[in-house]
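User: What would this chain look like folded?
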Amino acid sequence: MRSLGAGSGVVTLVEESSFAISDRTGDIIPGGAHGLFVLDTRILSRWELRVNGARTELLAAVSENPFSAVFVSRARPGIGLSDSTLLVRRSRYVGRGMREDLRVQNFGEEPAFCTIELFTGADFADLFTVKDGRAEDPDGDRSSTTVEGRISFEYRRGGVSRGTRIDFGGGVSASGELARFDVVVPPAGEWSTCCQVSPVIEGKLIEPRYRCGERVEQAAPVERLARWREQAPFVESDHKGLREVVARSVEDLGALRLSDPEHPERSVVAAGAPWFMTVFGRDSLLTAWMALMLDPVLALGVLQTLARFQGSKIDPRSEEEPGRILHEMRFGEASSLALGGGSIYYGTADATPLFVIVLGELRRWGLSTEKVDELLPNADRALAWIERFGDVDGDGYVEYHRATDRGLVNQGWKDSWDAMRYADGTIARAPIALCEVQGYVYGAYLARAHFAFEMGDEGTYERYRAKAIALKESFNRDFWLEDRGYFAMGLDAHKKPIDALASNMGHCLWTGIVDDDKAASVAAHLSSPEMFNGWGVRTLASSMHGYNPISYHCGSVWPHDTAIAVAGLTRYGFVEEAHRLTLGLLDAAMAESGRLPELFSGVDRMDVCVPVGYPTSCSPQAWAAGSSLLLLRSILRLDPWVPHGKTWLAPVLPPTMRRLKVSNIPLAGGRVTVSVEDGHTTVDGVPPGLEVLMEPRKPASAV
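Assistant: Here's the prediction, encoded as structure tokens.
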């Protein structure tokens, strides 16, 4: 059970594509970002409790999983009294709707008469209307009805219909949007009731995961999370932060999983709560890769789902192109709970090569060879997109340029409008070839070459090997800024380097596209005071014009970005620099109760002794949660290549850590335990036929 603190602030509960945002008393207050959301629509915009006409006084808010919480408060004392005898407990469970168990205990010596009121409301606002702070009512017709202890809300606009049904327990008097209970609570006794909130989509009532009258312990989310916890790696260490952060990440990733009713055996991961509880190509792929130590099957589900919606035609409105992997799937006014019921936007340059990289990683981890090989045609279509649509001008680099004025201006992971800047602060214009995207393409070529090698397809192997060699050579020539000792963020429409010092090149280290003679300079820049703020790597160096530590992409710190830089530094042997960044991120997480947010400010740790937050940062967020798992893998320097019967393992602990044990690592169908103490490593549970090499694997080469 984890305390959610007291005082002001918000509580976010999430289960698949449903989430609830409230204050810490449990109230959903209208006029802001609070609400119960299902499929990107706010189906409950008000849920306020009053006892004897007044708000209750918060005592505690606690949670033992991401989709439920208990809010404990007391009724305000009567006139002339210093204490109250009434304890109020609200137990809330979120999943395809909401259930709330309301319980009032009387610790007094006399019966207590109570008027208990629940003020309700549903505005059916779109998720992004709420996120942007535009709380005006959406267009359309709304109505409410009350009958037999039930309040119903309905919304219609054109052919779209949404509704909310709220069922209350016995003894309720419902009128308009108010539910009222007049009760007498006996001395040393209690009163309780159950309220159930159900969404209605196109006239069809959706049964919540938690229903009144049923045991909470038997609900699907509880059982699903229990199975997830059982399979998770377990960390023991004298570094308290690492242990707690990994455990919290496991919980968050479990909550962010989505399932498709059309393919219930597949799980994918949503980008983050509360604003991005949907499938994102880039986010889902990177998170699945980071989480391979937790559950390789998750990566398979992500790949299968993205393959299902891989582009097949040219459509400028959605930027769909044959072979392209989607950027974002949205539900909004979709008529189905199935993933396919949402609208899809394809405008991203990086998801397509990342698809091939993650497929190659699954092959290396030895997961379900047949299922992985079934996705190889999708990888080939992705590579065809890279060569035809990604590289329109034929210069060997993948560029992006939106198809219409409705698309994203920038289509890398730094996709805000002002993210791509020169050192003088001028904003670069598309088409742009991002440095990290070229690294992803390099990794995709290598992955496909390795597939071909294992299958004995020498022609395909030589083709992609040659493409990787050529790309690496041209990249290190055209993107390298010799006078500054770092790589440009990208090349602009005129092939001019976008010369700002930025974090993008950390991704290039991870993919192995950086020449060895340039890696030391890149490592020095990433760990320098102008880039490393004490907690993580800034997206843009503090020495650059346009640097803003409280911006989205121009000086903020993103944990996943730093973790990928750690993986890259580790890959090239810069362990000391990797440890500095690792310990900074772990400290940041511990300052946030063990959870890394989507991003935080780039303000220096020397100036403010805690990470400075970012207002609309998602928490939990998928690749932030995955970051701790990537840090753990980087510490272990774990690099499997199961088809070749080998796994590289060469742990080096950070200076503040003497002992580390990681149990239950899924590898080649087995469960492996790695123990490190005072520089000595032992490995148990290695599957037969797999050789463990106690040395780091050198950066992958195309040769």
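The CA atoms of residues 507 and 564 lie 6 Å apart. If you want, I can go into more detail on any region.
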